[in-house]
Amino acid sequence: MPDDLWEVIVRWRHERRRFVLATVIETRGFTPRGPGAKMAIDARETIGTIGGGAIEAEAIREARALLERGGTATLRRHLTRELGMCCGGEMAVFLEVLEPAPVLVVFGAGHIAKPLAAVAAGCGFDVTVVDERADWATEERFPTVRLEPRAPESFAREWRTSGEEFAVIATHDHALDQQIVQHLLERPLKFLGMIGSVPKQRKFMLRLKARGFAEEAIARMHTPLGLAIGADTPEEIAVSAVAQMIAVRRGVSVAPDWLLSTAAGGPSRRPAPAERP
């Protein structure tokens, strides 16, 4: 394995590339590489080698097809009978697509944001915390995530998203939450959540409808945030919130936050997890 393979993998992860990691998992007889040999393959480049020749060419073709559909695959070939190589042995190569870490932007650096950012980072999210308050958004409080020391409303207004990002609103001010929500409801996002109570949900719904947002658009926002696990402390609320985001990330159905209705009162909500005003 080339010495720089892992350095390239780290760089590709930092660049948020999708790529396939190919690993030789089994061999029989004479083969160009043994178990554990690896190479990384994206749409344009390859790094490392699993032995060259026809087996590597087929692995690259299969890897690039896998990038289109996602998931994993195992390539098993007899090198002579199936590929015309002279080695005479057999190889099995495991292919897995490595997806970029999902982006999570947390608006606010308060008491719930601190454990939420830490738990999310530990679960594989690429976390940025946005808050202009220098005494709250510190490296001591957020040692494992990226800090963006600027006004959350300004960041939300300028943020350009692809539809794969996660966002959580957890600021210290309801009026600021409202401004951020109005910007983010106009953005494609995979997940939009807000810390708050059921009364806060009702007030936001009325204000957003008055500003022309459709009920279905408002219902994209998960609030009160988190799964209903009886959470109470900031740390428990963080666990419930990250669990909800993981469910969305993995495509697991969870109970809806809003139950849309045509009644004059607007949406109703499932029993809430821990809430904060």
CATH topology descriptor of the largest domain:
Rossmann fold
Unreliable spans are 259-277
**What is the overall pLDDT average?**
89
Number of domains: 2
Helix content: 25-40%
CATH architecture type of the largest domain? 3-Layer(aba) Sandwich
Largest sheet: number of strands, sense, barrel closure: 6 strands, parallel
Radius of gyration: 24 Å
Helix/strand-derived class?
alpha/beta
What's the helix count?
Answer: 8
CATH class of the largest domain: Alpha Beta
Oligomer: single chain
Strand content: 15-25%
Shape assignment: elongated
H and E order? HEEEHEEEHEEHEHEHHEHEE
CATH superfamily of the largest domain: NAD(P)-binding Rossmann-like Domain
- Give the strand tally: 13
- Intertermini distance: 55 Å
Description:
This protein is an alpha/beta fold and 277 residues long. It has 2 domains: 5-98, no CATH class; 103-269, NAD(P)-binding Rossmann-like Domain (Rossmann fold, 3-Layer(aba) Sandwich). Helix content is 32%, strand content 22%. The protein has 8 helices and 13 strands. The strands form 3 sheets. The chain has a 6-stranded parallel sheet, sandwiched between helices. A 5-stranded antiparallel sheet has the order 3-2-1-5-4, sandwiched between helices. The N and C termini lie far apart (55 Å). 34% of the residues are buried.
